[in-house]
Amino acid sequence: MILLQLIYSGIALGMIYAVIAFGYQLTFATSGTLNFGQGEALMLGALVGLSLVGQGVNYWVMIPLVCLFGFLQGALVERVGVRPAIKTRSEFGWIMATIALGIIFRNVAENVWGRDDLPFPSPLPMSPIQLAGANVLPMELLVVVGALAMMLLVELFNRRSIYGKAFVATSADRAAAGLMGINTNLVITLSYALSSLTAAFAGVLIAPLTLTGATMGAVLGLKAFAVAIIGGLSSGTGVIVGGLILGIAETTTGFYISTGYKDVPGLVLLLLVLAVKPAGLFGKTAIKKV
């Protein structure tokens, strides 16, 4: 069944969008800012992973190393680009800073790894398996399981650890959290670190299914932002649903209509959501008391 195969591929693609969009949620919750270099964090994770695998590092050993790299890269972005803008209360400073850092990371990647797209060896067999009457790649199954596992681990971190509780408190009310003795600056740094960690992890998940290169993250990061808006920047369920909708819409449109139009359904949905429910399908509209 071709339709079922397209749905399977769309689910895998959509879960990658959801993981990256989840990273947008992490930073927005604590600081009201977004890392517009999320796509570049994904790209760097994939390329660093490719280099490690090329040096003989096992794929499963490589994953935590890439996650550590993403964590440090995200912390660097917050310290260099976001914190100065927050301190000076610059309304758009963090936007330009994260975009600028993303461009810098992309240029560095082009100089280190070159401009050509590179194949990423798959840790699983590339022959499809039968699932409910349709073929699905083992790597696509790993993408779905890995993406859900990553989001679940971050949620458990937020609910069970002391740092996670500080994270939740800062999300609820940053000023009140600061008065209670919570180092909100550290929490914001941690949110950016976790955001880039999830993006880097997404990079090594999707890399074996596509080509790896310095420009691979630009479109993925932009589409994940659309998913975050569609689902709602305050809803974990929303980003999963939004990611699945966008992923399936792209694969089915690309096959049944034309690959040149596969981006259209998602953008149309984004415009409709912004017009009807600006907070997103599952988002909550914030009410400010004055």
TrEMBL record:
Pfam families, per database record: BPD_transp_2
Write the record's keywords in alphabetical order, separated by commas. Answer: Amino-acid transport, Cell membrane, Membrane, Transmembrane, Transmembrane helix, Transport
Biological processes, Gene Ontology terms: amino acid transport
The molecular function terms of the Gene Ontology recorded here are: transmembrane transporter activity
The record's annotation in InterPro entries points to: ABC_transp_permease, BCAA_transport_permease
Locate the transmembrane regions by residue number: 6-24, 59-80, 92-109, 129-154, 175-194, 200-220, 227-249, 264-283
Q: Which GO terms describe its cellular component?
A: plasma membrane
Localization terms from the record: Cell membrane
**Hydrolase among keywords:** no
Query: What superkingdom does the record give?
Result: Bacteria
Membrane association type: Multi-pass membrane protein
Q: Which family does it belong to?
A: Belongs to the binding-protein-dependent transport system permease family. LivHM subfamily.
Please identify the protein, giving its name as recorded. Answer: Branched-chain amino acid ABC transporter permease
Give the organism, scientific name: Bordetella genomosp. 8
